Amino acid sequence: MRDLARITQFDRRQFLLSATAAAGLLPLITKAAHGETALERSRQFEETFARLTHGVTPVAEKIVVDLPELADNGNFVPITMTVASPMTDADYVKTIHIVSTANPVALVATFHLSPVNAVARVQSRMRLAKTQDVIVLAELSSGEMLISTTKVGVTIGGCGD
Amino acid sequence: MAANPRIKLPESAKIGEVIEVKSLITHIMETGNRHDKYGKLIPRDIINLFVAKYAGQEVFRAEFGTGISANPFVAFQMRVPGPGTFEFSWTDDHGVTTVATAPLALT
């Protein structure tokens, strides 16, 4: 009997715990799931992306983009882009583009490289108007394109007035 | 107005070594989206082009938009092909080009 009582008590506590957890967390989970899909992409972004990729479907590999998860100041966000490439005459990264999905102007910068660079790594500092995905596209000498998507949260937006 | 162009190179390098080259210039990078205190739009004024040459050959080029921060900074890598001097140029929306040069010390 004592054992049964303990079990009952435990069950009740567990039920309470899980109920509270479910009530408290479920909206958060739903919100997060919505947040992932609801990140707006500007029409200018879509047009710029189509122009830069010119019909080639970019592959999500070989690019590492280092951006902060949360940028306190959107006027000044450090970005480092590294593409795994042999950088030989036969196989090198020709261009790297930074494209913003929610800034007033989508194309942030284009960098032109060649085999003399030996390592396809570029660093710069960018502006972010608000929380958004930052897209980095790399075009290889073969014509193949690579893509990386990084979500950056912005506390105080840049670019604006 | 662009001012104070800076080039940062390693103190010395060997031929064949891959080095990091950093560049910075003082410039407001005005986006063209901001208004002055009278509500008038401040026209766009940015450095839109940066070109790096080494020993007379172009080794890196960047086209900047308004999404690049004020005082544009860029760093890139280069395998040292031989002795030479870097020549960097920054061009603004008015077509004005600022040039800076720096020799690379070889060991």
UniProtKB/TrEMBL annotation, chain B:
InterPro entries this protein is in? Ig-like_fold (IPR013783), Ig_E-set (IPR014756), SoxZ (IPR030995), SoxZ_dom (IPR014880)
Q: Which Gene3D superfamilies match?
A: Immunoglobulins (2.60.40.10)
Signal peptide from the UniProt entry: none
Report domain Sulphur oxidation protein SoxZ positions: 7-101
Top-level taxon: Bacteria
> What's the name of the protein?
Sulfur oxidation protein SoxZ
* Source organism of this protein record: Hyphomicrobium denitrificans (strain ATCC 51888 / DSM 1869 / NCIMB 11706 / TK 0415)
